[in-house]
Amino acid sequence: MSAVDSGSGKPFWSWAGFRLGFRRGLTIAPGIMVFGLVVGAAAARQGLSSIENIAMNLFVCSGIAQLVALEAWPSPITWSAVATLALIAAVLGARMVLMGVSLRPWFGQLPAWQSYPALFLLNDSSWLIAMRYHAEGGRDAAVYLGAGVTIVVGWMMATCAGYVLGGFVVDPARYGLDLVMPVFFAAMLVPLWTGRRRAYAWVVAGIVALAVQHIVAGWWFIIAGSLAGALAGAFLDEKARA
Amino acid sequence: MTDDLGAAGVWLVIVAMAIVTYAMRAGGFLLMAYVPMTGRVRAFLQALPGAVVVALVVPVAVSGGVPATGAVLVSLAMMAWWRIDLIAVVFGVAAAALARALLT
């Protein structure tokens, strides 16, 4: 484990870190792949060609946004339909703005030609793996990269398989596989726990997310809960007033 | 503007979604280059990862009924005990499958 350097240490890239990230990414790979099967099957159902399916999964690479876009898939495709689907990508990708914000203290010390291409691999799971590693004191940026590569490779394999298999995909809910992602996220809360003093940020995030989920249709609850929780952390933390 | 874009339509959707999604991925990081790192901002950043995860997990756990709530709680307990995420995920998913088998 290379997670021993001090909290103010400079970021760096190492092959050992890449392998560590790759291994940690394997934990969540089954969940990503189940999701990918569903998204690939949806693309086939909407009549995308195999090249279009591969391009969408590689360049958009945002599972929830793609699934919602494919469910709302317009026919024929007009300019206003393009704008609507771009808006869906914006709403469902909005939480990644916050993830990018939280990477700034670490990746901001890297040259821009390294950090901005690396952000292309940003997704929920690799961000979470990276945040855990960073919270434990690690600064090796290759851990983030390794986890991102595991997830994108698994994602591409699964979406292609789902595209080919289409309707033969079995019901993942029966085996609890639809819950792999939330279960993994819940597990990652344990290493993110920094003591009872900061718990109110989590309580606020949970309450606001639940309230917004019930009041506002769509996926606004993620961004609303995240922002409310982090703002609670910023403004209720006595130490932050210094 | 109701013109059918034809075969180019799908590619325009892919390009538009890809650009917007990358803007989301890089936007927050870019923005923070212009925000001074005060104590308040640091506290915001420290609270952010946990807040994002809670906001993602809690609504799913609640709206998914007993299997989802149980899976999340089992995962938390296993992670707190073993500190190994793979064990937490396996037990959490197994709990959900078991709960669904028993409840249906």
Topology:
The complex is a heterodimer of chains A (242) and B (104).
Chain A lengths: L14 H31 L4 H10 L3 H9 L7 H29 L4 H8 L4 H12 L6 H24 L14 H13 L6 H17 L4 H17 L6
Helix pairs in contact in A: 1-3, 1-6, 1-7, 2-7, 3-4, 4-6, 4-10, 6-7, 6-8, 9-10
Chain B lengths: L6 H25 L7 H25 L1 H18 L2 H19 L1
Helix pairs in contact in B: 2-3, 3-4
Helicity of chain A, as a percent range: over 70%
Number of helices of chain A: 10
Span of the ends, CA to CA of chain A: 34 Å
- Describe the largest sheet of chain A: none
Radius of gyration of chain A: 19 Å
What does this structure look like?
The complex is a heterodimer of chains A (242) and B (104). The longest helix of chain A is centred in the N-terminal third of the chain and has 31 residues, at 15-45. The model of chain A is unreliable at 1-7 (pLDDT under 50). Chain A is 70% helix and 0% strand. The relative contact order of chain A is 0.17. Chain A is an all-alpha fold. With 104 residues, chain B is an all-alpha fold. Classes of the chains: A mainly alpha (242), B mainly alpha (104). At the A-B interface, α1, α2, α3, α4 and α5 of A face α1, α2, α3 and α4 of B.
Write a brief caption for the model.
The complex is a heterodimer of chains A (242) and B (104). Chain A has 242 residues and is mainly alpha-helical.
Which keywords apply here?
heterodimer, A: 242 residues, mainly alpha, 10 helices, globular, disordered N terminus, B: 104 residues, 4 helices, 0% strand, flat
